[in-house]
Specification:
It is built from two helices and 24 strands. It is an alpha/beta fold. It folds into two domains: about 80 residues, Rossmann fold (3-Layer(aba) Sandwich), CATH 3.40.50.20; about 110 residues, UDP N-Acetylglucosamine Acyltransferase, domain 1, CATH 2.160.10.10.
Length: about 210
């Protein structure tokens, strides 16, 4: 079997594959989809494995899905089988020169910009064209959708979803498990478990 496996076989997994192709590692990659009953091929080239036991034959896994809950489930499954977790890193990124602390499991897709003095924790996904300004802290297992912007000194808790094109203004604190709607402009702190939408962003749900 191949050395590396992408957990997932849908749209985001295909984008992860594109980044691995940039890094000249596509020939050694398989995919994983345990929602089907038999193996199949993606693009008539890449084997998609369907059994959890198949994972034990691989060395390294990448997450090929954006959904926070499923990212947690799949990463836990692969770690239990002894695989090493690596974040996928596009060559088409801008990374600050000073005091950046990005966990090795963070996924950074094409055209992401990250300034200096930024910390990003385990399992987080920065999708295409995300812009992270100085002194930002982002928690574990966040999903930051394409074209979102997080401005200076903002703090993002664990398990936060930030929708496409959303803007988090400077020094705003977003609590754990919050959801920021697409295109929202967040001008004030967001408490844990809250969903906010609109310009300026307002709450539509809080537990």
């Amino acid at each position: 079997m191949h050395k590396n496996i992408i957990l997932g076989a849908g749209g985001h997994a295909k984008e992860v594959l594109e980044v691995l192709i940039q890094n000249n590692s596509d020939e050694k990659v398989g995919f994983f989809n345990n929602t089907v009953s038999s193996n199949y091929r993606l693009f008539e080239k890449f084997e998609v494995y369907c059994k959890n036991d198949d994972l034990k034959h691989f060395d390294i896994f990448y997450l090929g899905i954006g959904n926070i809950r499923i990212r947690k489930i799949l990463s836990s499954l692969a770690l239990q089988e002894g695989l090493r977790w690596k974040g996928v890193r596009s060559k088409k990124i801008q990374l600050g020169s000073f005091d950046t602390d990005i966990h090795e499991t963070v996924d950074i897709m094409d055209n992401v910009s990250i300034s200096s003095s930024v910390k990003i924790n385990r399992g987080t996904l920065l999708n295409r064209s995300v812009n992270i300004h100085h002194d930002v802290v982002i928690g574990e297992y966040c999903e930051i959708a394409p074209n979102a912007q997080i401005l200076g000194s903002a703090q993002i808790g664990n398990n936060v979803f930030i929708g496409a094109g959303a803007i988090i203004l400077p020094k705003v604190i977003v609590g754990a498990n919050a959801i920021i709607g697409a295109g929202a402009v967040v001008t004030k702190d967001v408490v844990e478990n809250m969903t906010v939408v609109g310009v300026p962003a307002e709450s539509i749900h809080s537990d």
